[in-house]
């Protein structure tokens, strides 16, 4: 188990995270918050690239800083801007990272092709990465994070810049490997984690605002999501009163999906989605 105990992180006088308290067990965690909320800071703390200003992070009851290499060998990390060598092939790059991670050559001989296959890059294994699409590069990034079969997998905004098809492929890769790992995925894109994460962690005002299943988070908005049609000229007034989540033009009308505390005549009650929860939480 990974325990984050009352962790505060300050950059000089600026507090990026305040009193974060979390317990993470095997499963997929979606760390969901807008840009600048502190996701990367939390990921870097878990990856020991930063240290808490206050509080501690424990792996199986022992502080990760003190465990040092013994913790880091359990860790796979895909940073937001992962550096790769354009002239390397995925095969060569993974072997190189594997050696840096301290893995044995024999192990890499077996593991590298398996990982390349797992992320669907077998056909491109011997091609230079400079020809790769953003999605292919991200898949190499996931493969390098998986080297050595880490128990903790930290992926910081792994789907940034991917097209919808690549996102689907990415989600499939992740769900295939979550059983014996703690997987933490940071994102500000709800659909990246809505259907694959067992838990959603939301950060707000530098603190943990929510840590729950998608179902429970949606339940908190039950009875507050509605749809209705308003005339286009009435839209600005409507938007002043209610938080509109989505809108679609239908002739002279706008079909709206919105959040309100109480039902009114002519409104249809809708099931709440994680996207609604996200917009409701970060409405300002
Ligand atoms: N090295 C630093 N020095 C000072 N302030 C920093 C530093 N790194 C991050 N911050 C600030 O801390 C806050 C949280 O940043 P962080 O990168 O963790 O957010 P984020 O949620 O990951 O956002 P993004 O998705 O844009 O990376 C931001 O206000 C950022 O400006």
From TrEMBL:
Keyword Transport: yes
Domain ABC transporter: 2-230
InterPro entries in the record: AAA+_ATPase (IPR003593), ABC_transporter-like_ATP-bd (IPR003439), ABC_transporter-like_CS (IPR017871), P-loop_NTPase (IPR027417)
SUPFAM superfamilies from the UniProt entry: P-loop containing nucleoside triphosphate hydrolases
GO molecular function: ATP binding
ATP-binding listed as a keyword: yes
Name of protein: ABC transporter ATP-binding protein
Organism from which the protein derives: Blautia caccae
């Amino acid at each position: 188990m990974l325990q984050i105990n009352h962790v505060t992180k300050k950059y000089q006088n600026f507090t990026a995270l305040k009193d974060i308290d979390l317990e993470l067990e095997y499963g997929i965690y979606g760390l969901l918050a807008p840009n600048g909320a502190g996701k990367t800071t939390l990921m870097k703390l878990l990856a020991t690239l930063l240290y808490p200003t206050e509080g501690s992070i424990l792996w199986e009851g022992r502080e990760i800083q003190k465990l040092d290499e013994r913790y880091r060998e359990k860790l796979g990390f895909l940073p937001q801007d992962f550096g790769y060598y354009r002239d390397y092939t995925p095969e060569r790059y993974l072997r190189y990272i594997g050696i840096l991670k301290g893995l044995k050559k024999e192990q890499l001989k077996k593991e590298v092709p398996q990982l390349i296959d797992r992320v669907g890059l077998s056909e491109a294994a011997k091609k230079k990465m400079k020809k790769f699409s953003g999605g292919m590069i991200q898949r190499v990034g996931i493969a390098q994070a998986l080297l050595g079969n880490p128990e903790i997998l930290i992926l910081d905004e792994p789907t940034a810049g991917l097209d919808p098809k690549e996102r689907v492929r990415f989600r499939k890769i992740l769900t295939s490997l979550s059983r014996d790992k703690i997987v933490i995925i940071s994102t500000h894109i709800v659909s990246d984690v809505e259907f694959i994460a067992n838990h959603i962690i939301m950060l707000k005002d530098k603190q943990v605002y929510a840590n729950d299943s998608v179902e429970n988070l949606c339940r908190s908005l039950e009875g507050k999501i509605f749809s209705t049609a308003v005339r286009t000229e009435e839209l600005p007034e409507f938007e002043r009163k209610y938080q509109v989540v989505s809108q679609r033009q239908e002739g002279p009308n706008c079909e709206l999906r919105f959040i309100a505390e109480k039902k009114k005549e002519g409104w249809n009650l809708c099931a709440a989605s994680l996207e609604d929860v996200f917009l409701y939480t970060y409405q300002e």
